[in-house]
Amino acid sequence: GGMPGGMPGGMDSGTKGNFINATFQNSEWTGTVIGVSKNASLNFDERSSWKVTASADIDTLTVAPGTTITADKPVKITVARLVVAGNGSYKAGRNVTIETRNEETREDAK
Asked: Chain-centre distance of CA 75, in angstroms?
């Protein structure tokens, strides 16, 4: 099962209210999430990489300490929740900023 690696850019749902829950295992993905935004959950394992082509606003981003997220130009990934496997810390790669959406005020996000 699972999705093949190297999917073409931009998963565009076409309509509002659609949900995307994508899991990448040992995969490389170049693209971004268009239009689905807050209903999208992306999960990358430690052998996966995401080359972000444009800023994205998603619900949940799950990464492992070995996940590689980079971009050719500065982009921002806004998330409601950032989950790091094994409760480790995660630092995005070159040109990528991951920011937590302030739906509920959280002081621990600093």
From this structure: 12
The CA-based angle 5-24-87, given to 5 degrees, is 150
Q: Is the backbone of residue 19 left (phi > 0), alpha (psi -120 to 50) or beta?
A: beta
CA atoms within 13 A on the CB side of 75: 23
* pLDDT per position as a tens digit, 34-71: 765 678 899 999 999 999 999 999 999 999 989 999 99
User: Residue holding tokens 């394992």?
Assistant: 45
Chain centre distance of CA 86: 17
CA–CA separation, 70 and 27 (whole Å): 14
For the whole model, what pTM was predicted?
0.73
> For the range 51-59, what are the long-range contacts, defined as Cβ-Cβ under 8 Å and sequence gap of 24 or more?
52/77, 52/96, 53/9, 53/10, 54/10, 56/32, 57/33, 57/101, 58/33
CA dist., res. 60 & res. 84, Å (int): 11
